[in-house]
Design goal:
Distance between the termini: 10 Å
Largest sheet: 8 strands, mixed
Number of strands: 8
CATH superfamily: P-loop containing nucleotide triphosphate hydrolases
Structural class: alpha/beta
Helix content: 40-55%
CATH topology: Rossmann fold
Strand content: 15-25%
Number of domains: 1
CATH architecture: 3-Layer(aba) Sandwich
Radius of gyration: 18 Å
Order of helices and strands: EHEHHHHEEHHEHEHHEHEHH
CATH class: Alpha Beta
Length: 270
Amino acid sequence: MPHIVSVVNLKGGVGKTAIAVNFAAYCGMKGKKTLLVDLDPQTNATFSCVTIEKWDKHAAKKGTVADLLEARGRANAEGTRRDVHSVIMTDVFEKMDLIPSHLDLFTIDLDLASATARERKLRKALQPIENDYEIIVCDCPPNLTIPTQNALAFSSHYVVPISPDYLSSLGVGLLLTRVKKLCDDLEHELEHLGIVISRVGRPATHRETTVAALRKTFGDLVLDTELKERAAVAESAEKNKPIYQMGNTDADREFRQMSLELLNRLKGTK
């Protein structure tokens, strides 16, 4: 069974997508067959890996994660839908495949309002291929709507990125409580892999106090590595490249250290 890791937060702008994309890319670089699943309708993880033109052709001909979740009634009258093998974009980075997202996920909570087992559609759709991978990384939208619920119900672990500003830190306790309730309701085991402090250095009131409070409250759950706010991270997404190909020594080092910490934590879990 692969390790399946969701990257989740209730707030946007905390570096969630950069962490998901570059952790998945690092796993691939280390020889682990990896799948990145973009569940955010904003499609930022998708466009961090492939061009809009390539995505557009693929979405039209082969589908996206919206097809797997049956957004906008994409299943036909017989209940069939696009096959997961069709939806996957292979080798977007070294040993890393991608299931791209789509804007149609914005309305999926309405589309699936009366659907049965709606939190388990992703698990069911990916079951035929999940054992083809050692690592599966899910990039979630900044909320706990149906796409995030599907990711968590499919995952073995989850990671919480936090930027060191007061408002970001406020929602951590709420997030952990709601994740636990969801898993209890679904009778699903999910392990908290850690908290990543990211985007350090952008304007934030009481930054040092917030970081100290996070480390005191959550202890060893907080990774040692902190990710600085760097232009190279945004540039790598614009160029559809992992940060490791950008020639920025500091950013490269930080993301490698973060990814290694996560992998080491995975090794120590069941």
